[in-house]
Amino acid sequence: MIRIIYFLSLFFISISAISQTIVIKGGEIHTGLNQESFIGDILIEGDTILEVSTKPLKADVVVDASNKIVTPGVIAPDTQIGILEIGAISETRDGDSNMYSMGFSVFDAINPNSTLIPWNRSNGVTSAITLPDFNWDPLSGMASYFLLDGSLRVNGVPDVALTGEIGAVSSGSRAESLILLKDLLEFASTLDEKDISSSKKISEVMEDFEVADLMELQPRDVIALYNLLNNKLPLVIKTNRASDILKLIDIKKLYGLNLILMSAQEAELVKGEIAENNIPVIVNPFDNIPDSFDELASNIRIAASLEEAGIKVMFSESRTHNYHLIRQGAGNAVANGMSYTGAIMALTSNVAKSFNIADRGILKKGMKADIVIWEDDPLEPATFPTKVFIDGNDMDLTTRSSRLTERYTDKRDLPNTYK
Amino acid sequence: MKKLFFVLFSLTINVDTFAAFESTYEPLQSEKILFINGNILDGEGNELLDTDLLIADGKIIAIGKGISVDDKDIKIIDAKNKWITPGIIDIHSHMGVYPAPSVRTSSDGNEATSPVTAEVWAEHSMWVQDPQYALALKGGITTFHVLPGSANLIGGRGVTVKNLQRNTIQSMKYPDAKHSLKMACGENPKRVYGNRGQAPSTRMGNFAGYRKAWIEAENYLNKLEAYDAKSDEEKMVESPPKRDLRLDTLSDVLKDEILVHIHCYRAEEMALMIDVAKEFNYKITAFHHGVEAYKIADLLADNGICGALWADWWGFKHEAYDMVQANIAIVDQARGGKGCAIVHSDDERGIQRLNQEAAKARAAGNKAGYDISKARAMNWITSNPAKAAGIYHETGSLVAGKNADVVLWSGDPFSVYSLAEQVFIDGALAFDRNTGFGPVSDFDVGIVDPREDRVND
Prior knowledge:
The complex is a heterodimer of chains A (419) and B (457).
Chain A: H1 2-17, E1 21-29, E2 38-45, E3 48-53, E4 61-64, E5 69-72, E6 74-79, H2 116-122, E7 125-130, E8 142-147, E9 156-165, H3 174-189, H4 199-207, H5 210-214, H6 219-230, E10 234-239, H7 242-255, E11 258-263, H8 271-276, E12 281-283, H9 302-308, E13 313-315, H10 326-335, H11 340-347, H12 349-354, E14 371-374, E15 385-390, E16 393-394, H13 400-409
Parallel strand pairs in A: 1-4, 1-5, 6-7, 9-10, 10-11, 11-12, 12-13
Antiparallel strand pairs in A: 1-2, 2-3, 5-14, 7-8, 8-9, 14-15, 15-16
Helix pairs in contact in A: 3-6, 3-7, 10-11
Chain B: H1 2-17, E1 33-41, E2 47-56, E3 59-64, E4 75-78, E5 83-86, E6 88-93, H2 132-138, E7 141-146, E8 154-162, E9 179-184, H3 187-194, H4 203-228, H5 232-237, H6 245-254, E10 258-264, H7 267-279, E11 284-289, H8 297-302, E12 306-309, H9 327-337, E13 341-343, H10 354-367, H11 374-379, H12 383-388, E14 406-409, E15 420-425, E16 428-432
Parallel strand pairs in B: 1-4, 1-5, 6-7, 9-10, 10-11, 11-12, 12-13
Antiparallel strand pairs in B: 1-2, 2-3, 5-14, 7-8, 8-9, 14-15, 15-16
Helix pairs in contact in B: 4-6, 9-10
């Protein structure tokens, strides 16, 4: 038996040794790190980047990238890709739970055959964080991370972050939301490993916490709270008003939260404190409109202004179907003062780092090979990718949209249904 | 007795001659300006490199190479390496009727209380202090058309507005521009009324609703015309048909005095709407949103109907599911380039960068195999929307004699990095990025820091 295993392992080693290598040759490489771009080669073996070099590299397959731009695959930080197909059809939306709050995981709902996956992939997005709906709760469900490779067994990491929202509400007060947030965190801070070791134990600790009853918390909600504090799960809070941001910073400090701010349209007014506390911020670069009285300070230079303060910036896009338009958003951010390198980082490594995705978002040795070759400047919305690699695989870029385009530009005299 | 009738009759005349809500627009002080050596996309499909443009008295005077003017008062603007385009026009905006902040108390874009509200006018809802006009101006928008929303089969009248923010709607209205009539197909009206258990709740209910309204309008118009045909004597003894605001609007459509703009996504619904228009003998100016316009691009071209479309929006509704990015290009290129394509925004973020939306649409079209120049694509956001608003004879392209609505761009307007540096409306500077000159709405005054204006950028 041992001999068979030995033999098999030899067999597998030899398979991997002969697995094809690919070199992406001569492209202008933007690594996703804070460094100047350079002309160079990227060597891939299997799903991994073996080397990135300004010297010529050799491989079994050569992909010419001369006169093209090469970047890490775009990582989308704030989507509902995979859990939403058509906005107005509630049966195609899976972002909400009636039963769970913090413990609600969207991972099992992800549909790898969603048309949003090839569409965003063909536009350079290689992986995404998918979030449950925000329902004005200070803490709600958990976000998951997954690759846009269309694999039926979803390649991803469930429950990479907890979400929540603080701000203007049409009834009640934001003060109530902040109190609830603090009560939940105070409760979480009393939990130890034993308390969450079984449903029975959890039920016992919940008995001493009245809010749990009021909120109809379930055991898995309590486990999520425990993980938030003890495993430093990132907490993404959607909020806008400067004073709310300051309150959240106080709470972050008190409980040692791994806080990420989202939307944060008045972040500019408190950028010093955000920077001091190393809080990453997800902003929508198009959002310069004072949509509510929480967002009066919003303006088109927010990304540049936060970058200048030394804050880690990421981009979001309000329409999940076209989430890839964060590239256009990044272009607009650059047009309004952000650095080009900073904008590329915002689309790639800043997301990976903020959400603890250790092996993606940067083009360097040892990282997973999620790579996009662009025909031209990726921040120009008129630029398309020519090749997209996910885990080293050269992905097909066909979409339902490209199929329909072919059908309706086909000049043969046939009904569309016969083309 | 006869005398009394006469008095009444002349009173009627007096009432009729007061045109309510007429434009009182006055341009700002125009300048004499010679832009030299600019790269011009003229809105007529031409790209003119290193070319001069002369404007004076609010009009375009000349366009060409090496224009020399012997006038010491003229202002010279060096446009070397910069680009000049006509003022950008958005044919589909809800600024003012859905202003920012988007609070319920100012959301006045849909009179969703009856499926046919042809009697309402968007201009009666517009908030003049909306901070969004200034943001659009910074994106080069000199003229925009405000429509009622799409909750109703027939939603009311839309209005064309000069992007010069002032304290009354009348002072912003584009002089003598026709109204539009906003109609809507598909999911929105049937959802809004179907959810209340009333008609329409289906697409066939929608169509019954349009036709019923047009039948009423025909009857009304017949009565009006029959009365008009009467002799003065007869008119003295017979009172005119009772005025009906709703049917006034619809009969004006039948008299070709109002332009029909229809919110419609699906190809088959657009084809049916064309038949309704033929049945009642009116013309459709444009289908808006038309995510499936590419499926009937030839039909639109044959009927002289524009497609006012997004570059890439999709998926928010089932009728918006079959998106192709080449939609605008396919509509434009139908019947050998006879199509009329418009990039519209329907969005207060999109209106700030219609040039980028046109850039995406052009790139997608060329990827699909067309060869569309930047000059051609510029028509999608200038001359074509001007035609659809009925103001093309005055604006929408850089042609001598037209209004000097001009944008000076820092670079190629099809690049994301280019910004509108200066925007002129009727030959007068309305926005200057370098000096910060531009409108500040009352909303922005002292609202964050009482000593300052809110940063509206």
